[in-house]
Structures are given as structure tokens and as C-alpha cells.
Model the fold of this input.
Amino acid sequence: MRALTWTGVNQLSVEDVPEPQLLNDHDVILKITRTTTCGSDLHLLSGYIPFMRAGDVIGHEFMGEVVEVGSGVRNRRVGDRVVVASFVSCGNCWYCRNELYSLCDNSNPNPGITEGLWGQAIGGCLGYSHAVGGYAGSHAEYMRVPFADVGSFVVPDGVPDDRALFASDAASTAFTGVDLGGVQPGDTVAVWGAGAVGQMAARISALVGAEQVVVIDRLPERLEQARTHAGADVIDYSSTDVAAELRERTGGRGPDVCIEAVGMEAHSPGPQGVYDQVKQQLRLQTDRTSAVREAIMACRKGGSVFTLGVFAAMVDKFPLGAVMNKGLTLRGAQVHGPRYIPRLLEWMESGELVTEHLATHVMPLEEAPRGYELFKEKQDGCVRAVFLPHG
Amino acid sequence: MDLDQLISRATGLTTGAGAALLGRLQSVRLPGVGTASAKDDPATAARRWRAVTVLAAPDRLADLPSPLAALGDRVETRVRPAPGDKGTELAARFRGPATDDDLGRLRQALRETKQLVEVGEVLRMDPRPHGERADTPGGRLLDGAVAASRKEGLL
Ligand SMILES: NC(=O)c1ccc[n+]([C@@H]2O[C@H](COP(=O)([O-])OP(=O)(O)OC[C@H]3O[C@@H](n4cnc5c(N)ncnc54)[C@H](O)[C@@H]3O)[C@@H](O)[C@H]2O)c1
Ligand SMILES: [Zn+2]
Ligand SMILES: [Zn+2]
Done:
């Protein structure tokens, strides 16, 4: 079959690879109908997550049709149209039973790597490096989905593909941040990053009752989408003092909840950005954190800051004093997909959550390298490139 | 040890180096970043109880599960309830001296035991679809780290 593989830093290619097989009783094989780029892939592409092997099939936000079912699978049938959580979860460990699905104890077959990096191993993620399992990803014609009863969800007939697709990762990630960040009715929420994750965080904040939502980015077309589709106020950080603007808009308090959806390659103008980039390239720090810093400084006293953006290891110039003295709650997580996907599909069916506008570029899988180029360089208004492995 | 130093040293470019790199990841000291505590000497480390918490009642672990049983009498085990309804703590250690290889087998056995009890099977990964595996120094290093990762880690 054809699949998109990582072949080296900033290199991708579409190649012939063997088809996947059922390996465990709880697996299904999926025929992939839609699969899309995620900001997290950019960190892999640029080599900031150094656990990629040439030939690895990437991709973790996707949907498809079940074509084969393992003997231990109870709730999936051949022909089901499903959307699948990007992280793999066994459903039976203490973390899964407590709905902390991305922390699953049994889904990462390479626990030695992240135990060494972080003190404990997290769960496995599909198509996202050997540090989180080395699973083949979704940018392919077919894919093995382990623990399919836990991670796959039948899409209601009324939900079109280009909507359901984003329940897989972008919207469920956003929901993770909104929920565990503690957004309450009446809150003011600020979201850094107007990619698919940030836009979904803004919309879901409004759905759970936030009264005021502000989205921060520098790309005008993305800010426009956040305004139109999420009903958010927007700030262009390249021309505005974000903290001052947020103070002015919140009666001097600052936002109740700050959600960071930018990640380890955060861009920042001026000397801070140069400093971070140089240190990252010299490997003195592994991550650039300008958006997290700004969120911590802007957040109201006693408020909460949630990092959805992916960070790999060590950061520098971290305002711990502000976290401690302002009594902030700082939290982060990888996406707990199965906890949120059912609710997202309901909102998608009722029309309260629409995502079709995120799929700015839809193309055959053969053109995936070009799709990633557009997505990485944010060219031509690209928010997500969606690939169709079967045309 | 400095991370860069470690990486450049391990770039002896074999899969063996990858396994070694992973084995030492837990003792990495970044410049200016460390922990205050002392580190175990290898003999103390080898004697520590290594434990996983299994979400199941203790009686599910009454008969020594097969991955651990395979290590025979050299290993002693301890089973006790975990506080806060978190299941059962299963700990094991070698009665006598143990090599790094022994400890690796013990880690893998504990992880597999937990999976067998909690989900009924051990996750299999191969064969999996992949493209051309170019033979590069970095690739060899990673292959070594991945091959060792079921046996490595802090457990
Ligand atoms: N936690 C999870 O499980 C999970 C899941 C999916 C994605 N993510 C992460 O979420 C982040 C966003 O994902 P995405 O797909 O929306 O990515 P994306 O690349 O499409 O969007 C990132 C946005 O951040 C903006 N940005 C850059 N620097 C900024 C700054 N200093 N302040 C404000 N905005 C800034 C960029 O202009 C861009 O629009 C990534 O780090 C990704 O890895 C995490
Ligand atoms: Zn993602
Ligand atoms: Zn689990």
C-alpha cells in the first residue's frame, strides 16, 4: 500500500510499504478515508523529537472504515465508520479507568525511553515516534488500531467526514485543555495559538459557558477564522502588547484560564525569540516557551494555565516565581481522547461544533509532502491539509 | 553527564550504543540542572524491589504469572494491596547478585505480567508497515534504543 513516511529531518516521501496485520485480539484494521496534519507533526519533522526512524509512517488524526476485526473486539463491526483517538489506551489500567487515557500504562511498548526522559512512561500515540510506541501512523491506505473498543467511535450518520475527522485529535485535545484547565461558566478564557487546536479550544470554551474568549496569534487568516467560527475576540501579537491588551479587556484582572496551544517551536519577535532559538539549536534547552511565559504573566491571580502545546524536555527562563506567588494552577496533558470524543460527536451532530473550515487543503495522499510544506510554512492560508488515501 | 556529551559519545554508531544511551538516560545531568539526592550505587540498585501496580485484586497474582515464573527461584516477589483502591503492588527482586541483563529481563517480566492481568495479552508490534529503513548512524542508534526499551527504564 502507499504511505507517507518520514525519511529524515524535514524530509517526507510517499512510498510502497507492507499492509498492516491484526497482531492482538483487540485490534481492528481500518481503511483510512481521511487523515490530516497536526501541529505536533511539525515538531517531529523538524527533528525536535529525536525518536524518529527513517521509514516511519506518520499521521495520528484520522478516520476510516473498519475492514477487519480481532477476535477480542466486542463493539466494532466490519463496515463501521469510525473516528479514532490519537493516543492508544487499554481501557483497563488505573489511568484508563480514571479517564486519563493518554497516561495509559499498557499502550506504550517502549516505556524505557519516556521513563528515562520524564520519570514515568506515558501511553502510546499512533504515528508519533518510537518514544511513544513506534506505531505506524494514519497517512496510509490501511492502519492497525489497537484496543479498538476503547479508542474508536462510530460516527453518527448526520456528521460529515470533514467534521468528524477533527474529533480524533484537534478538538479532543482542545476539550482536554478546557475541561482540565477548569473553564467555568462566566469565565474569561485566553487561548494562545489559532491553529486547529487553539480554535477548537476557543469554541469549546464558549460551549461550556465561558463569557469572553480571546484568541492570540499573528496569522490574519487564522484570527479571522477564530472570530467567525468560534465567536472569539482576537489579538495579533505581532502588533499588540498582549498582556496590556488582556488587562484592558478584563478590567485589569487578566484571564481566568489561559490555554496555550502553540508548542515547543513558539515564535516570538525580538531578543527573547532569538535567545530561545539559539539556546534550542545549541541544545541548551529543548523547547521554546514564549507563549507559556506570556500566559503565566497575563493570567489573573489564582487562575489556571494549561499547556496543550507539546514540549519535549527542558526549558529555560521559566517564570516559576509568578506561578507560585500568584497562586496559579499550571497543568498540561496529552489528549484524553475517549473521554471527550462522544460529547464532541454530539456537538458535531447538533451543529454546535463545526470544523469543516479547518480543512483548508484537501488532496490525494500522493501529494502529502506538498501538504506538509503548505502546513509547515502556513502558506496559502493552510490550517490543516487533509489527505485522501483512496482518492 | 551533559546530554550533548552523552549523545556524541554514544554516537559510536552501533545499535549497542543505542541501548547504552537509553540505559544511561536516567542518569543524565544537564548543565545546571540536577536533583539534590544521592544516587544508588549499582549494588544497592540491583537489590531494590522493582514494582508495578496492577489494577486487580491480590488473588489474581496469587500464582506467579508466567513471565515472572520463567525467572525461577532467583527472583523473590512481594504482593500487597495498593492504597487508595489503586489495585495490587507486585514487586520483585533478585535474591543474589544480578547483572544488567538480569535486571532488564525482570523489568520486562513485570511489565508483561501487568499487561497479562489487566488486558489479557501482551502488545505486539511487529510486523508493522514501514518504508525504506536507511542505514544511518542515527538510525542504528535509535534501533538499539528501541530494541532495549522494553527492558530499560526506571522500573
Ligand atoms: N496535547 C496534545 O495532546 C496535543 C494534540 C494536538 C496538538 N498538540 C499541540 O498543540 C499545538 C498546536 O497545534 P496545532 O495543530 O493547532 O498547530 P499549528 O502549528 O497549526 O498552530 C500553532 C499556532 O501557534 C501560533 N503561534 C506561534 N507562536 C505563537 C506565540 N508566541 N503566541 C501565539 N501564537 C503563536 C502559530 O502562528 C500557529 O497559528 C502544537 O504544539 C501541537 O503539538 C497537542
Ligand atoms: Zn496531534
Ligand atoms: Zn490503560
